[in-house]
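ok new one. same drill as before - structure tokens go in, u give me an amino acid for every spot. 137 of them this time. try not to just spam alanines like last time pls lmao
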């Protein structure tokens, strides 16, 4: 089984490096998967976590991405997530390697239609109180 070491500072440092390289793109940030995900036009692009970089490459590019050093399939809830790759911190230690992964993700995600920001589904917010807290007389 694969073992990794989590470095709490690595998430922020990696997020800062990613943020600089994505300047100029319509990118937003969202906390997700224990890290910071970067969304391009509302679609998940990459995520920085203590374990490294999560990269969305698309199902067709899985094989090529997994052949690169320090890459492994993304696992979520015990399931492999096709089209998503995790890259260990060692695999994005250099600016050149980080940029190559960002380019791969951007090439795929830029082909996806932009997502409109949706309102939260009903029933997901604070609900009005139905009990008064008093006992019936």
């Amino acid at each position: 089984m694969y073992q990794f070491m989590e470095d709490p500072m690595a998430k922020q440092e990696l997020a800062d490096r990613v943020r600089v390289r994505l300047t100029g793109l319509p990118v937003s940030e969202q906390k997700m998967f224990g890290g910071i995900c970067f969304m391009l036009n509302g679609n998940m692009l990459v995520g920085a976590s203590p374990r490294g970089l999560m990269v969305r490459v698309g199902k067709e590019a899985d094989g090529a991405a997994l052949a690169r050093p320090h890459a492994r399939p993304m696992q979520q809830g015990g399931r492999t997530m096709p089209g998503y790759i995790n890259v260990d911190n060692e695999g994005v230690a250099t600016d050149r390697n980080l940029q190559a992964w960002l380019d791969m993700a951007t090439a795929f995600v830029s082909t996806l239609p932009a997502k409109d920001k949706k309102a939260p589904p009903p029933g997901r917010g604070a609900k009005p109180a139905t009990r008064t807290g008093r006992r019936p007389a």
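The two ends are 63 Å apart (CA to CA). and btw Residues 45 and 109 are 6 Å apart (CA to CA).
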